[in-house]
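seq:
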Amino acid sequence: MVTGGASGIGLETARALAGAGARVTLAVRDVSAGQEAARDITATTGTAVEVASLDLADLDSVAAFGRSVVGPLHMLVNNAGVMLTPQTRTAAGWELQFAVNHLGHLALALGLHPSLAAGRARIVSVSSSGHGS
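struct:
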């Protein structure tokens, strides 16, 4: 499972995992961009990739996503993130960057805990040095 797998580091992480034969799901906010990325990954690796809708800024979306995952997971790559957004609040009132980059991924890992534990999974959290720019 790779959050934000439709572009950037997430896309290349998903491509590397699929190229190694892993079953990969792109958990993305923009499903059409995710489907395009999945087609590209499949074409370049020969391994089919799944796409699932996930909005890390919306904890209801995160909870629903967590409930939809069945079976063991072996890896969760917390890659999605936002940076340098204008001062914006989520519907729940959280600052957007904090909500997506921290609260959303924490809620996701907690919601996926049964599947992660069943697969004796690793959780990888990607960060950026972009804040230093």
